[in-house]
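Render this sequence as a predicted structure.
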Amino acid sequence: MERAVADESKRIRAARIFTETGRRAALAVLAATYQGEKGWVSDPEAQIPRSDVRRRDIAWYIVRVDGQPAGVLRTLFDPPVKQYLEYGLKFTNPSMDIERLLSGTRIAEVGRFAVLPEHRGNLMLAAALMRASTREMVLRGYTHVITDVFEDDPHSPLGFHTRVMGFQQIATHDHGELNCGSRRITLVLDLKSSYQRLKTRGNWFYRYLTAQWPETLHRRFAT
């Protein structure tokens, strides 16, 4: 597995978008998936306006395979998480202290995850996008990640998020920003707990995810 990951890593690269060229590449992915295939949006341009690539509170990431755009992901830093309450959340995890989560942590939201159909099934694309986004989160001092996935979407990242990353389901709701009738599942990830769990397992994903972390981050998350 380690050798396969190393070989794939040479072909698959994810990075934050800072240029108009990168934004246009991300638009092409969203147009093919969110608009053309899924029908979730009518105007991909509205999803990633030009101003997004210059904002500190929003980061878009693109993953390329052999230099060609293959997938995207968006991170919102300090999102208005209380807006989730307006969606009519039905809480499903009694062990999660929602009030503490909303008031006592630094939260980033990941969303707009999309992979072109011809690249689905390749776990490394999701891994590369999450590696790029989580590295920026931890460098900026964020502690938790929140996301929504569609319950009925056959291409949902739910399995990757829960089985690989360690996200926990906290709620469901029926409405959101995208034009989709599927129920949403709201997930939360404690970054420090995820780090420690992955390190204990000692598998390839831990080494891949943290390969670019400075030693100071490892020390912070280890205790």
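Summary. Residues 173 and 191 are 24 Å apart (CA to CA). The first strand starts at residue 12 and ends at 16.
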